[in-house]
Amino acid sequence: MVDTLSQTFHALADPTRRAILARLRSGEASVNALAEPFQMSLPAISKHLKVLERAGLIARGREAQFRPARLKPQGLQDIDAWIASYRHLWSERLDRLEDYLQQMQREGGEGHEP
Predict the structure, then answer these.
(1) Cα four-point dihedral sign 31, 37, 41, 44
(2) CATH T-level assignment (fold) for domain 4-72
(3) Which of 16, 26, 56, 91 gives 75 a disulfide partner, CB atoms 3.0 to 4.6 angstroms apart?
(4) Residue 3, phi-psi category: left (phi > 0), alpha (psi -120 to 50), beta (remainder)
(5) What span, in angstroms and rounded, lies between the C-alpha atoms of 25 and 76?
(6) What distances in angstroms separate CA 24 from CA 2, 42, 59, 72, 74, one per listed residue?
């Protein structure tokens, strides 16, 4: 069984792969175009693309010799769901902290001059 969440986090852990995803937000691109801003070989960029593809974050087409890569936003759905559960938890905790601080302010402000 493949743990897709782990694969996705692994793919996103590398700054080069995150930069590639950021570039693909504006549309599909060739390996050469994706390699341009980096000081690395085309085979190294291809390895990064394979990691992103295995994680389901990009898809690669086949048009003769041109293999454009494009973003697959649905690849981030598992991470979004995982983060959402923690977002809810932290939102509740921060709301309780805010209530507590407001209560402390009211209690500390009664009968005392600043």
Answers:
(1) negative
(2) Arc Repressor Mutant, subunit A (1.10.10)
(3) 56
(4) beta
(5) 13
(6) 25, 17, 11, 9, 14
Measured CA to CA, the distance from residue 77 to residue 33 in angstroms comes to: 27
Alpha carbons 72 and 75: distance in angstroms, whole number: 6
Question: For residue 10, which phi and psi values (nearest 5 degrees)?
Answer: -60, -45
The token pair that represents 12 in the structure block: 């996103």
- The DSSP annotation for 72-93 comes to -GGGGHHHHHHHHHHHHHHHHH
pLDDT, residue 110, reads 60
Per-residue pLDDT tens digits of the chain, which is 114 residues long:
458 889 999 999 999 999 999 999 999 999 999 999 999 999 999 999 999 999 999 999 876 667 899 999 888 888 898 899 899 889 999 999 999 999 999 988 665 554
